[in-house]
Structures are given as C-alpha cells and as structure tokens.
Amino acid sequence: MRVLIIGSSHPWRMEAATENALRRAGHETLILDDRRMKRAIGRRMTQHLVRARARRFQPDFIFLSKCLALDLVTVQRLIDNVPNAMWYHDPQWYRDTVRHDIGHIASVARLAETFFVTGFDAEWRALGTNAKFLPAAGDASIRPVDPVPEYASDAAFIGTGYDASRAALLLQVSKKYDVRVYGPAWDPWRAELKWNGRSVEGEEFAQVCSSAAVTLGINPSRAEGGESYTSDRTWMVILAGAFYLGQGTSGVTQLLRGGEHCAWYSDADDCVAQMDRYLKDPDARETIRSQGERFVRANHTYDQRISNLLSGTAWTVDSVIG
Predict the structure, then answer these.
(1) What is the pLDDT of residues 274-292, one digit of tens each?
(2) What is the CATH number of the domain that holds 34?
(3) Is 10 inside any structural domain?
(4) Which residue stretches of the chain have pLDDT < 70?
(5) E strands, the chain, where?
(6) Which residue of 49, 85, 134, 248 sits 20 to 30 Å from the alpha carbon of 235, by its own alpha carbon?
C-alpha cells in the first residue's frame, strides 16, 4: 500500500515513527512536512506543493496529523475518494476549540474518515468528529543503553514545564530524593529543580531513562478526567530502559499492569511512598523494568498501531498479548 503522511518529518516525532512502522510492514510511504514547507516557501505555495506531490505519489491511504499549515480546502482535496485517518496525541484540548490552532485541528478532524485520539474520544465525538480511542505508542527502535554516571539520579522526569501541577509534584518528591528534570520551559522553577535546561532526544533520552533509578510520569492538569489517557513518553521511556512510576487511572492501569510492567501512584504523597518502596528494592525494579520493556515492545509500539490506523478500528484491551 502507498501511504501518504502529512506531518512532521522530525525523527523523534510520532509521524516519523509511524512511517518507520509502515515501512517495516512493507508499505511504501511519503511524508510531507507541511509546517516545514510553510516556513520555507510560505503558506500559499505550500498548498500547491502538497497537492502536486500527493498527485504524483497517488496514495492508497492518507494519514493526517495536525495539518496546521494546510487550508481546509487543501485537506479536503487530498482526501477526496482516498481512505484516510487522523491521529491526535493531545486530546485534552477539546475544550479549547476557540483557539485558532485547536479550532483548525477540530475542523480537519471533522473532515477525516476516522479521528483517532489517545483519550477523551466521547468529548471529541460531541464536536462532530468520528473519534475513536487509540493509545499513543513508542518507536520500536528505542532501546536501553548502558547507564551513564552523569545522568544517574533517584528519579528523572522528561517533559515540558507548562503545568504548575507537574512542578508541584516534582518539588515534593525532590524534598526527599535526587530528582532530575529534562525538557523545555522549566524556567519558573529553575532555582528549585535540578533542570538540564533543554530537551533530550535519541541516545541521550535513552541514557537518562537507563541511568535513573525511577522515571516518573505526570499527567498535565488539563488531562484530568481522561481515564485512559497517557502520553507517548510512557511507552518511550519504558522502551528506553526505565523503571516507570506513573500516575494511575482506571483506564491506563489496563494498558500496563502495576507491579508487573511498571508502578502506579495516586497523588504526590503516594508517589513518594512508591519511591520509598522501590528504591529499597533494586531487584524488584529490574524485574518489573525488564518485563515492562518486553510487554511494551509486544503491544505498544507503532508497529502494533498501524493495523488500527489503516482499518479505522478503535483499540481495545482485548488486543493485548500476554
């Protein structure tokens, strides 16, 4: 099958990871980075170039990401009479369609045959989309590496500092343990947190995950109520060698089993209590870490998600192996 992908060509983004999985499955792909084109040649010319390259490629299927640099008429012309799907990894923003970018994403979603989201599918359906649940995933090429002393810590968190509630939890844990924070936009807390000041990707990402005793997952406050929502970092850090301690909800604990694939906490106090427990038991951490990596590699990489993308079927827990 010839699959056209509209989205970021950055190797650390989900569109490129999806393309890699499609190619491993034997599909021919073309990825068109609409926002990069817009920066290079302007929005108007981007519409012409995307349509021209799509015509030459003659796709059997079109996979849409946010399409922020494409006009709605361009998107409609691309997908006319071509099977298609859209996959949006930040579903909690359904409340903010008055924002120009979120409103545009919602409009594109209404054009798509299937709008896959990693949570809040009922809320997105109420906005007129054919929303279906499909959890985020990790790239199967991500693997653990040998620990590096400079990245050693009791706990690491990798993510963006746009949410004060995340900072509050990290500050509470850091009162007792050595916590390192990686990612952009933590400036308001730079005096209180051990922050590296930038993003980590590729091998450095794996070095952080493989070197920390625990890697934390913290949902943003606006994800509250998303019982099955979890970030793609959940899968990425486990594939990269992390013992993962995340924020448990009734839905997400069906994706990974606590005490077998990872560990879960309910609030900041419980997070500290789980840290107390697992830092005292390195053998348990290693057993859970290795089981978690095997489980995620078998169930939660992009290689397992492409069948849903191409068929338009929602993900169910019944598809989990082992």
Answers:
(1) 999 999 999 999 999 999 9
(2) 3.40.50.2000
(3) yes
(4) none
(5) 2-6, 28-32, 61-64, 84-88, 115-117, 131-133, 153-158, 179-182, 194-195, 212-216, 244-247, 263-265
(6) 85
